Amino acid sequence: MYHSFKNHLKDRLENRKAWSDYFLYCLRHWEINDKVSGEYFKDKPLLSIILKTYYLPINIVKFFYRIRTWHYYLKTETEIDVLSKELEEEDAVVPKFLTEFSKDKGGRRWAPLNRHLRTRIFAISSASSGYGISSTKILLKNALFCLA
Fold this sequence. Notes:
Blueprint: H1 2-40, H2 45-54, H3 56-99, E1 102-103, E2 109-110, H4 115-127, H5 133-147
Antiparallel strand pairs: 1-2
Helix pairs in contact: 1-3, 4-5
């Protein structure tokens, strides 16, 4: 389940990067269109005023649409940052989880696992006590390896 969630986070991060690029392209194209319009209407100020007045309702809607797109772009960039940090934390948690050990009352070292897995490892080590110390260590290493 851990790897599945991590893969979903990676897929979501890639999706948000694509959306961020899309929003940025839209904003850049609008800037280019504004520059073209400014150059075109530089010599025709009367036509510019007439058309801006005539298309005022549409221009107001376009203005709010640009604000909405800018908002989506900023929100997507924030989500990319959060997802990147989350993936870094997920990567940092696994090695820390497997390398930290705590000692129980008998002085044996146990990985910080849940109670059921500790019981399973203890049952393996108890059952193999007749086989010798080296075989017990091998069984415990195999049990911990299966958890990783």
